[in-house]
């Protein structure tokens, strides 16, 4: 009788522990002030930058503005592909991303991202952004190059390359695995540096601006595009060529890794041919 009673008590204790664990799960996802700030603030930053830039580009596409800066003049993606891309982006931005941010919050906290009212100094923010750019560029180059392995390209990266003539929206038209790799590259620097949340947001906005610019189909001069005057960058022209030729030119912010590894040679040869043609004309 005593043994039976003890077994019953043990069973009840295990059941209570299991119930408590189950009830604790939602608590780990509870909307603490910092979690709400992280999710809502990140969503607001991303959506504001992404849709503002793409709205401006849509006006340029529709009204044939800035045509002298078009990289592939007279060409445009088919309407069906644009519609498919728009639906994909809407689902990703408003259904998937907020949930992923909610789940990712503990990692952000563990990495030491600050949410305090005291803002970092300008110097701290600047060097965090500069280092994050280098970390991002390295991770993006090697993950992007890896995605051009025949098997990975066929099953993952091919979706993004449906746009042989890129547009701003196409920047986030990608397989979930590729999206995860790109997000990791973007966030790695600020997380490794335990940046303040404002620096993290600023860097996300900066990277998104550069990425949309690189897919815009325009090689815009300064001040329309600040990326055109930064030494070591050839974002729009080089990445547009990557989409149209699907050969080399894997870099993101800078040409450093392509130059070091020789993966810019086909692009540079194409540039020389273009210059030769222009000189003849």
What descriptive keywords fit this protein?
281 residues; mainly alpha; globular; 68% helix; disordered N terminus
Mind telling me the C-alpha Rg? 23 Å
Largest sheet entry: none
Distance N terminus to C terminus? 103 Å
Task: Please report the total strand number as a whole number.
Answer: 0
Which percent bin holds the helix content?
A: 55-70%
Mean pLDDT: 89
- Beta-strand content: under 5%
Q: How many helices?
A: 10
Secondary-structure element series: HHHHHHHHHH
Outline type = globular
Structural class label: mainly alpha
Catalogue the unreliable spans: 1-9, 11-25
Task: Summarize the helices and strands and which ones pair or pack.
Layout: H1 2-28, H2 33-63, H3 79-110, H4 122-147, H5 150-155, H6 176-192, H7 197-214, H8 235-245, H9 256-261, H10 265-280
Helix pairs in contact: 2-3, 2-7, 4-6, 4-7, 6-7, 7-8
């Amino acid at each position: 009788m005593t043994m039976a009673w003890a077994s019953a008590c043990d069973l009840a204790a295990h059941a209570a522990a299991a119930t408590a664990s189950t009830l604790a799960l939602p608590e780990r996802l509870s909307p603490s002030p910092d979690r709400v700030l992280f999710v809502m603030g990140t969503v607001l930053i991303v959506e504001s930058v992404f849709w503002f830039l793409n709205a401006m580009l849509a006006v340029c596409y529709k009204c044939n503005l800035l045509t002298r800066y078009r990289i592939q003049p007279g060409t445009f993606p088919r309407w069906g592909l644009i519609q498919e891309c728009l639906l994909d982006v809407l689902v990703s931005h408003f259904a998937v991303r907020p949930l992923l941010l909610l789940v990712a919050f503990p990692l952000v906290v563990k990495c030491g991202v600050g949410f305090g009212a005291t803002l970092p100094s300008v110097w701290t923010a600047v060097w965090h952004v500069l280092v994050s750019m280098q970390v991002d560029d390295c991770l993006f180059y090697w993950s992007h190059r890896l995605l051009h392995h025949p098997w990975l390209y066929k099953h993952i990266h091919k979706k993004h390359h449906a746009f042989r003539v890129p547009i701003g929206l196409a920047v986030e038209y990608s397989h979930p695995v590729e999206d995860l790799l790109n997000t990791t590259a973007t966030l790695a620097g600020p997380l490794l540096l335990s940046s303040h949340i404002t620096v993290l947001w600023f860097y996300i906005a900066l990277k998104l601006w550069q990425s949309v610019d690189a897919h815009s189909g325009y090689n815009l001069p300064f001040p329309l595009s600040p990326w055109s005057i930064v030494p070591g960058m050839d974002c729009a022209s080089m990445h547009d060529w990557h989409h149209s030729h699907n050969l080399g030119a894997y870099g993101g912010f800078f040409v450093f890794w392509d130059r070091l590894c020789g993966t810019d040679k086909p692009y540079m040869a194409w540039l020389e041919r273009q210059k030769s043609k222009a000189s003849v004309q």
